[in-house]
Amino acid sequence: MDRIDAAELEAFAGTLLQEVGAPAATAEAVAASLVEADLKGHTSHGVLRIPTYRQMIADGVLVPDAEPTVVDGTGDSATAVVDGNGTFGQVVGRTAVDALAERASEHGLACVGIRNATHLGRIGEWAEAIAERELCFLSFVHTSGGGLVVAPAGSTTRRFSTNPITCAVPTFDRLPFPLVLDMATSQVAHGKLDAAEADGRSLPPEWAVTPEGEPLIDPGAMGSFREGDTWGAIRPLGGTTAGHKGTGLAVMTELFAGLLGGGPVAGQRDPDAWFTNGACFLAIDPARFGDRERMADQVEALVEHVRAADAHPDVPVGDAAKGEELLLPGEAEHRTAERNATEGIPLPPRVIEQLAALADEFGVDGPFGE
Ligand code: NAD
User: Fold this and answer.
1) Which of 38, 293, 307, 341 is deepest in the core (most CB within 10 A)?
2) In sequence order, which residues have a C-beta less than 8 Å from that of residue 135 and are 6 or more positions away?
3) Is any ligand 1 atom within 6 A of the Cβ of residue 117?
4) 291: CA distance to ligand 1 center in Å?
5) What is the CATH number of the domain that holds 10?
């Protein structure tokens, strides 16, 4: 797989985004977020999204030059709602993070609802931005009734999106990265099925289910976000053994995001419509709860405790990253980013093909070589 320099990829992505209608500052912010997702190993949320964003612009769902609005409850309250007004989610995410951090620092804890955010991308980015300010973070993200691909436990019918839950805890200079759990509440994020299809891989039987209730092995039989429920469905987190837990998390995510963000929940909108992210972002200032050094010691003690467990070579970790030692939440992304920053970002051939075609169309030079 070709590796591409991150700075070159970011400049190229920014140019393409301007070509599809984004103002320069917006294009720069979106390109930075997409390339950061690629750096961290989440190709499914990286530059491969640009052709989809272009289609969303053409369909009038994404308004590239719109600006998000902060709707403030009572002026200096601990809560706010950010209306993305249909602009790029990466711009909405920045606005929401700033509003959230400001309020959490002022009040000790804060909550920001988000609606009309198109695609917030890799939610871990917003979690990391809050944790870097030494605040704790928790979020619930839904797709406002569109793009449903996940079946509840005991069903084959698409009823939820992959509704990620994300939490982060600062590590008070004791680790070079914050602890970030950033996960879909389904067995896998949708992008991992697309990646399997592109690579010609079969799906593990625990990932998805056919309309007949059988394991869905061929990712090509899954259908896209926009093909209703006549196709397969991703199973809820916990699969066939504990899928009720993933279903419960999906229901709660749908309601936290929908109630506090104000966008429609699943069932209130045509499921074939484009997804558009809504969310609830929460932040807590740990400084209000005690001494920084005590918390730093607690983080370090827990990390050492986990790392001291044996990393047994025969115990599988499924789809998770596997290291020589046990990994903590957010560590795989940190390590991958360090490697990709020096060696370049590995982009699958199909992604390069799509972006090179877009570059040709706009007469833009790509960083892909011959
Ligand atoms: P994943 O399964 O790749 O990782 C989930 C979590 O597990 C991460 O926090 C990771 O650091 C941690 N992890 C990985 N390997 C580990 C190990 N060996 N030990 C301990 N922890 C480990 O994530 P996912 O569920 O496939 O989601 C992928 C991305 O998709 C996320 O960034 C998420 O925000 C994004 N997403 C976005 C949307 C949206 O609508 N915007 C929807 C769904 C998912």
Assistant:
1) 38
2) 101, 104, 105, 170, 283, 284, 285, 286
3) no
4) 31
5) 1.10.1530.10
